[in-house]
Design brief:
- With 347 residues, this protein is α/β, with parallel strands linked by helices.
- The protein has helices spanning 3-9, 11-22, 40-52, 67-73, 85-94, 120-130, 153-164, 185-188, 201-210, 215-224, 230-235, 237-251, 257-271, 276-295, 309-326, 332-345, and strands spanning 29-33, 80-83, 100-102, 108-110, 141-146, 171-177, 192-195.
- Strands 2-5-6-1-7 form a 5-stranded parallel β-sheet, with helices on both faces. It has a two-stranded antiparallel ribbon with strand order 3-4.
- Strand 5 (141-146), helix 7 and strand 6 (171-177) form a beta-alpha-beta unit.
């Protein structure tokens, strides 16, 4: 997400941080809280850049082009520490193909992964790092910690002590969480909490359209986007498989809905593999389409299977239940087939 989009999507946050930058009233610790889709990490990186930028704009925010800004962007700024369990998780997923576990029948499957927790050792290393003098000429030492909810109790207590006893006036903590309720109250009390608004559907839709995607992809992204880059969204195999299946499902004749759905599932299994993530996207996308049709029958005219309002209501309930099951430990192929059968009965 570029600087302009970040600032325009969060006007109140931008105003608060701009005043701090312009009047040299930088808090020693900020806590950014808001939904997963809100650009909290992007704002943290922009704030880090703004503290060291050689050519800030009229609002005090980074130019994004100078050597200092590029160092932050490339994570080569010597006095920046970025602790991010979500990034670590994505790297584990990317490398998962190299690590398999054997099943009883001799085949392999990926090892189950979990988002790492932030351990006390990481905070201890942070404290040790910040005990030394700054290496960069601006003198600022900055640390970003994303996902405070993933912090162990020992790590939280260690961070609390560090917040209570900063080693320098030019240390800035940029802490990120979805909710302050899941963070130690003693940590919250030592930070300036800044709450992010949800990103509007229109902002996300416009960004997806700018990337070259079609209207349906933009509509789905505006509801389902969870903070990925636009490239990650538009290139996602699960997203694209789900979109392709949904387009064919909503274009199918009602009497052949179940037959079409099972054939599409088999086709995806043979081509790219039908994952639980893909199935969840299918259920969520269908839910969005019929929820919008229920609100305004003309909004998606020509796109959807014709359903009476009472049938749409039943579909929405079935799809909600199916999506929830995808987040659990249910046997996914059975969830899909049962859901398709239930939907077909309501046609």
């Amino acid at each position: 997400m570029d600087k302009t989009t970040v600032l325009q999507s969060q006007p109140m946050v931008a105003r608060i941080l701009s005043n701090a930058l312009l009047h040299d009233r930088i808090s020693h610790a900020y806590l950014f809280v808001g939904s997963k889709a809100a650009p909290k990490k992007e704002m943290a990186l922009l704030m880090a850049q703004s503290l060291v930028c050689d050519h800030p704009d009229a609002q005090g925010f980074a130019c994004g082009q100078c050597d200092q800004c590029l160092k932050i962007q490339n994570h080569s700024y010597a006095d920046l520490v970025d602790i991010d369990p979500f990034s670590a998780y994505e790297k584990l997923k990317a490398n998962q193909g190299a690590s398999k576990t054997k099943k009883n029948d001799g085949s392999t499957k990926p090892k189950p992964l979990a988002i790492p927790r932030i351990a006390k050792d990481e905070i201890a290393q942070l404290q040790s790092f910040f005990a030394t003098s700054a290496m960069e000429r601006k003198g600022w030492k900055i640390y970003i910690i994303n996902g405070l909810e993933r912090m162990s109790e020992e790590a939280g207590n260690a961070l609390l002590k560090f917040l209570e006893e900063p080693k320098s006036e030019k240390i800035c903590a940029l802490l990120i969480a979805e909710s302050s309720n899941n963070v130690l109250s003693t940590i919250v009390s030592r930070c300036q909490t800044i709450r992010f608004q949800g990103v509007s559907h229109q902002v996300i839709s416009d960004r997806v359209l700018e990337s070259g995607a079609d209207d349906l992809s933009a509509l789905m992204a505006s509801y389902l986007w969870r903070g990925e880059t636009m490239e990650e969204w538009t290139d996602s195999r699960s997203v694209n498989d789900a979109l392709g299946m949904v387009v064919q499902l909503i274009a199918s004749d009602n009497p052949h809905f179940r037959e079409t759905a099972i054939k599409l599932e088999n086709d995806v299994v043979l081509s790219t593999g039908f994952t639980k993530e893909c199935g969840k996207y299918i259920f969520d996308m269908l839910y969005i389409i019929y929820m919008l049709q229920l609100k305004d029958p003309t909004l998606l005219n020509g796109l959807t299977i014709r359903l009476q309002p009472k049938n749409i209501t039943r579909w929405l309930l079935i799809l909600t239940q199916a999506s929830a099951k995808c987040d659990g430990s249910y046997y996914y192929p059975l969830v899909y087939e049962q859901t398709i059968s239930r939907l077909a009965k309501e046609l």
